[in-house]
Amino acid sequence: STFHSSAHLQLGFLLLGRRASSSTLHLRRGHPILSVASDAPLSSTPTMMDQQYVQLLQQQQQQQQQCPQQQALAKQQRRPRGWHAVEAPSSLLRTHNAIRDVLEALPPLQELTASNGKSVIALGQGDPSVFQYLKPPECAELALVDAIRSKKCNGYAHSAGSEECRRAVAEYYSKGLASDLTVDDVFITVGCTQAIEFCIAALATPGSNILLPRPGFPLYETFCSYMGVKVRYYDLLPEHNWEIDLGMLDMLTDRNTVAMIICNPSNPCGAVYNLEHLSKVVQKAAQLRLPIIADEIYGHIVFEGQKFCPVASLTVDVPILTAGGLSKRWMVPGWRLGWILVSDPFGVLRKGRVLEGLTKLAQLTVNTSTMVQAALPSILQNTPDEFYERSNVLLQEAAKLCCRRIQKIPGLECPSKPQGSMFIMVKINMSMFMELIDDIGFASALATEESVIVLPGIAFGTPNWMRIIFAAPPALLNEAWDRIEAFCDRHRSKC
């Protein structure tokens, strides 16, 4: 028992105190025997220490002589009567990832195939590697192999990323920007998702608010919700190529607004903002004193006739945090390497200790894969232009295929054709599919009956739409649209 162990220790120290040097104490935890080896005999004259020794022995004997019922009662009195309340924090419970919620609510893929005999065609998650159609550049794979074989990448790196990695990113992305980036302006993250999380965390405090696009990537709201940050939505206008409704920004902004997020090229809309529109957005941000978080993970994935303009290339007045990464343009989302680029020529963010905050955030996860970091300089330097061009052509052809098929299906509409990224937003005329009720019912029934997985628009803040990723082989896309067309024919309301 605890008492026995404590008593033994006290007895031992008492005995040691009255022995000559070279005493040796032998203790066995919970054992009633305590022995002392000494080269000096015990004194025959009782001392205060001897009396304490006797008292402790008597207490120990009394405890051992207690009846079993008394011992059980003593144990019960020492034991907590019940657990204190153990609850998950409310900040965690109010956190949800709308995309994951939808995908994980579906039956397992094996069950879908077993229920209807059709192989699953997953057009929901934004992963360009799923179908092995869009492959990473060979130089990226070789660079990673070389990094592994070098035996130099098995340890930790600087929390913000290795200096070589950050320098390579700074040099690569300084081209065309309004001001050059330095190594200190770059933070390497675990994918672009963490880059966005860090940008929000570095600017916002509980009770402040951020302006988000609608429709928009749902993780923006997820991060804000977890951090206790309020969200306010500005609309993207489908009839105007999903451009930002600039008139809403004045109404939404107040003294507690800390930033606005822009996603260009757009997820989920597939829009690419032209120079004129982006210039107006930046001017409005300067007028409202709004820092911009630019989600440019799909940067440069644009189709014929379109040009990608980094937001940071248009201004030196507005502080901009740009989130990017390898995932989409290089087709390697599983490599989990992203970055934050800090464009802040006048030092607004530095004065507010935002860079210091980003440094602290980076220290939470130590660093991303040092092997991928080591490979990154070679990837940025050696990926041929032909790789980017071929990828964009394949995606453009896939987008055109989707638009052609949509035109032939009554009840579906695409008001704005994709100009870039990997997604198309399809409007569902639910008055023609009344038995399905809404976009969630539409997507759920489509998965169950046809094994085609798409995401309902409500996951992006826009009900009665659906988002489809078209980073898939043409034959597979056509098969998916054949099934969608048959599904719509079955469920279309008979008037």
Primary descriptors:
disordered N terminus; Aminotransferase class I/classII large domain-containing protein; 3 domains; 8-stranded mixed β-sheet; alpha/beta; single chain; globular; Aspartate Aminotransferase, domain 2; Aspartate Aminotransferase, domain 1; aminotransferase; 495 residues
Q: Any idea what the CATH superfamily of the largest domain is called? A: Type I PLP-dependent aspartate aminotransferase-like (Major domain)
Write down the CATH topology of the largest domain: Aspartate Aminotransferase, domain 2
Rg estimate, integer Å = 33 Å
The percentage helix is 40-55%
- Report on the biggest sheet: 8 strands, mixed
What is the CATH-assigned architecture of the largest domain?
A: 3-Layer(aba) Sandwich
Low-confidence stretches: 1-44
Strand order, main sheet: write it out: 4-11-10-9-8-5-6-7
Q: Overall mean pLDDT score?
A: 88
CATH class of the largest domain: Alpha Beta
Count of folded domains? 3
Shape: globular
Helix- and strand-based class?
A: alpha/beta
Helical segment count: 18
